[in-house]
Amino acid sequence: MNARHARAAPGGPQIDAIVIGASAGGVEAVGALLQGLPTPYAPSLIVVIHLPPDRPSLLAGIFQARCQLPVHEALDKEHLEAGTVYIAPPGYHLLVEADGTLALSLDAPVAFSRPSIDVLFESAAAAYGERVLGIVLSGANSDGAAGLAAIRAAGGRAWVQDPGDAMAAAMPQAALDTAGADLVVPLRDMAVRLAHLRSGRGVAL
């Protein structure tokens, strides 16, 4: 089935974690998704946006001002909580462990990026399997493509911003070329569907 027309059955696998990756244009894209999320909201949300490693990140504050859910920069060994948004700090890879905790790593950059979207997605695929949703948004490189393929291979779901709707089309297009997707839509439509995942249960795409 063509990725643009794939469907997920209502009442499908419980989604416990949503991992989101973006780069150029990503602050606007992630903000648009988060601002529509209702409370309470069941899944945890973990976000990687490529950031300069040599200055503090302001993303948690920027997103908190637009989001009803609690938002903060991720901490090493922190346990994931439902309905909370975790932002990768600059200069560190962010991973999800099998026990539901987060880990920060100073391993070498992947595709010139630390934090790396691929590193987050691949760890989430291993930790959650079919209970994870991966989302690739606007960006100017291919980070996230291999990670999204890992999520799909583990039975999880993959959503990609329509490249024609993205400020930078390279990242969503690379994700589609490498991994395909269960949903490819403009950001506005994706935000509506994400809000409908408030219980963590599958929604019709």
Brief summary of the model shown:
This protein is of the alpha/beta class. It contains six helices and nine strands, in the order E-H-E-H-E-E-E-E-H-E-H-E-H-E-H. The strands form two sheets. It has a seven-stranded parallel β-sheet with strand order 3-4-2-1-7-8-9, sandwiched between helices.
What spatial form do the alpha-carbon principal axes imply?
globular
> Which percent range fits the helix content?
25-40%
Reported by name, the CATH topology is Rossmann fold
Unreliable parts: 1-10
- The run of helices and strands is EHEHEEEEHEHEHEH
pLDDT average, as an integer?
Answer: 92
How many distinct beta strands? Answer: 9
Q: What is the CATH homology-level superfamily? A: Methylesterase CheB, C-terminal domain
Instruction: Quote the distance from N terminus to C terminus.
Output: 13 Å
Walk me through the structure.
This protein has helices at 26-34, 59-64, 117-128, 145-153, 170-179, 187-195; strands at 17-22, 44-49, 71-73, 85-87, 93-96, 102-105, 132-136, 157-161, 183-185. The protein has 205 residues and is of the alpha/beta class. It has a single domain, classed as 3-Layer(aba) Sandwich (Rossmann fold), CATH 3.40.50. The strands form two sheets. It has a seven-stranded parallel β-sheet, with helices on both faces. It starts with 16 loop residues before the first strand and ends in a 10-residue tail after the last helix.
